[in-house]
Amino acid sequence: MLFDRICRDNGIAHRLTQPRSPTTTGKIERFHGSLRRELLDDAVPFADLAAAQAAVDGWVAEYNTTRPHQAIGMAPPADRFSTAAAKTEEELLPLRLPPVLTLAPVPPPASASSQAPAAATPAARHHLGGPVEFDRVVPASGNLMVARRQFWLGTARAGLVVTFWADVDVIHLTIGGARVKSVRSHLSTADLARLVADGARPAGPPPLPAAEPGAAIEIDRVVSKDGNVSLGGKYYVAAEILGGQLVSIRVEQATLMFFDPATRVLLRTRPSPLTWDQARLLRGARPAGPPPRPSAEPVTVQRRASNTGIIMVVGQKIALGRIHAGQVVTVHVAADTLTIDLADGDSRTVRRTTSQAVHSIKAHRPRQRTSGSAS
How confident is the model over 47-95, as pLDDT tens digits? Predict the structure, then answer.
């Protein structure tokens, strides 16, 4: 194999681990765990292999350049990489390659005379880290590569012009003036300078203002089949009925609000286990938009009547009568009324006396009979 030949020519021993021996590959197993927890558990189904590769490449770039690592003092690996040391090592022991492979030529550095006029242009002032804007056209694959990072926009947006607003803290993507997504920036001041050299322009105010300390923050996540979402490497309950759905989460001081990202209709609320400092470091965190609102349509739930014919909905007891004991009925929960569809085809409407939100959609499962001896 060519890889083994390169190793032999450069005095490198290529050692292989035994099959089914994960303890000998602890570092890569730990990396696989991070990849699954931070990307794959929340990822939507990929359209094809290219989309999956793009998502992994984007996560790897974030893993190496922006994600804090506990083992190196909460710094990203890129901050600990020394190009000077690498260059010195290469000069001491240059890499030997077979004739079929050659090193890519290094472009010559720009002359001082060619750099001087650029320093005098208005755009050059943003080389120090000021925000920039630039436009890109979504390719047929739905993936955009910008500064070594993939941005997945979907094949449905192929051919559309996306405007990027970027600084060293956040990147906003807008199409036709409407914000599509906001992600934490992986760009450095040098990256911004390169974008300016490629035609980026000075940016105005961001599409969303920066989040003030304590302000609400929004993120997007895919709910697992068990009804959980991953936040900061830990799983928290959303709702089993939301399993498999992409939801947006508004993180407030004491509340998590799960809502539909397209309509901003409120789906669930849960107590928030996160502080603001923890929330702002979540993957994909962005300043929150307007608060989500409950759907104007009645919420439809199911309930199983007790042995005495009583059901409990939004904290309110409703007596249906013993004739309906054990039956599963459908209840339409509106702002002021509760409408019950009975099993015999009749319906009953009562006035709602509580303001409690709906927490359970499906009827409780029937109790399992325990086996025992009969006397």
Answer: 888 888 888 888 888 888 888 887 787 788 877 765 454 455 445 556 6
Closest by alpha carbon to 245, among 264, 259, 256? 259
| 193 falls within a domain | yes
Q: Please indicate whether residue 68 or residue 21 has the higher confidence score (pLDDT).
A: 68
CA atoms within 13 A on the CB side of 329: 31
Mean pLDDT, residues 164-181? 83
Q: State the residue range of the domain holding 310.
A: 299-351
- The total of structural domains in the chain comes to 4
Answer yes or no: are the C-beta atoms of 313 and 338 closer than 8 Å: yes
How much is the pTM?
0.36
